[in-house]
Predict the 3D structure of the following.
Amino acid sequence: MKIKKAGMKKPGGRIEYLLAGLVAAATFLVYLRTLRNGFLNWDDDRYIYSNQHIRSLNMSFLKWAFTNFDFSNWYPLTWISHALGYKLWGLNPAGYHLANIILHTVNTFLAVVLSVRLIEAWRGAALSSGAGFLEGRGKLIAGVAVGLLFGLHPLHVESVAWAVERKDVLYGLFFLLSLLSYIKYAEGTRPSGKAGFFERQYILALVFFALALMSKPMAVSLPLVLLLLDWFPFGRIFSMRSFRAVFAGKLPFIALSGLVSALTLMAKNGKVASLRWMPLSERALVAARSLVLYLWKMVIPLDLVPYYPYPKNVSFLSPEYFLPVVIVVAVTVFCLFKAKRQRKRIWLACWGYFIITLLPVIGIVQVSHHWIADRYTYLPSLGPFLLSGVGAAWAWKKAGVLKWQRALKAAGVTAALLAVLTMSYLTFRQIGVWKNSIVFWNYVIRKEPDKIAAAYYNRGTALEKMWKPEMAIADFNEAVALAPDYFKAYYNLGAALAEMGRFDLAAAAYEKAITLRPSSYEAYTNLGIVSIKMRRYERALENFNKAILLNPGFAFIFADRATVYAALGRKGLSVSDFRKACGMGDEDGCRYLKKMGF
């Protein structure tokens, strides 16, 4: 049942679209520097340039995209977007970056429109008597402020400048479209016995939500966000009966959220940290600290680091955990106190949105070795940004009634311009951090006070590809010194040492790698090759035999073993292995057979 609400007239002209377009254009210009960046050897390889699946856009690929859990998540729409990217521009990183920039630009436009719509709903629902500063120009000032913060804040560089974070800007697009569709649905209705499942805007909101979930599982928080909006600003929840009616309307959203949550946990497949290793009390302390740190980074966006290793020695008695708990509790109590007055509920609504949208990545369910990430704030930041926009509108209105209004307004405009220019500069500079793997890992190593083994390993692999084995060896040695159980670091250390002709040290590195992962046929194979270089043929034969037991379908191992048999004078066994290699498609095996007269 639709009910017209007082003050809900659709404004003519929609000047907010023009302003949103200008803010989006400024965002696009600042991010153009990203087009000069390349790929990184941090997930860009697995997701894009080494991913054979995205190189064909057919039914086989679509089946893989919707059933693949190899990357510890389920986001088929993100895979489809990468496959479309490969179809359009191959492995040119500029194309992937351009797509991210465009998506972020559109999201910035939507952020302005969404902010204005929410403020209109707040004013129109007659809940905000006393908030007249948001009338007319006020709501536009608030919307533009939110858009500038969202589009130009350095905290969002990671979501845009990192090619693999397509999932962030893609889910952000559909999340915002779902919110806007739901606002259109909710602003003209009141709860009744019917959920309104078949209304056009409701269906659009549900479809956009499904697309957001297929882009990134972090969208699972949307049903709670919609319930929050029903409480404020729409005022559709005002009793237990009204809550039941509104909740019934969220059941399709909740069902989709539950399904994707289950798929995500299935995809993690044992990667979720156990409570024995990481107690719930410790996770709660880390979660409180992360909430406060995210807010701090929104205010002071300096020293942003792409990798934040999980903290050690977590204790409530430590000031770095005790104080955040106090701050979180104090802010929550403050917002609850303000919520007693309907027009002040915006405080609790924005704070609640911030926490709800961060819940999937706050660390209660810990699945990675880092505890926070700048990219996690991409949509959650809209809560604090909306409060900031409302504050800017209030300050503008307040300046208009004071004695020195012209001077105060001029000072306010100057301060706003300085803030925008500062943000743009910091964002422009932060984009440069993502230029290439060497620049990126140099930055991480320089900025992170605790040494990170993964940073040295990844820089080492980048140096190895640049044919700088000596420098790569130094980084791999640093990585294994920091993490003695780092299999990949020992494996790549062995490869770099072998390239330098240091076969004895390479063999030792491979042996350590095999100790850490006895199922690695690659390590056995490389150890066999190094043994050949050292003329230790019996040892090479032993390693090739173990590699074949682990992977009898790898043709190159048979060809390598055949060369060992030849060196040991066992011609019959050598010919047999070359035949196996040739039959499995190894051209070198076929060539050796011809050379031997077979």
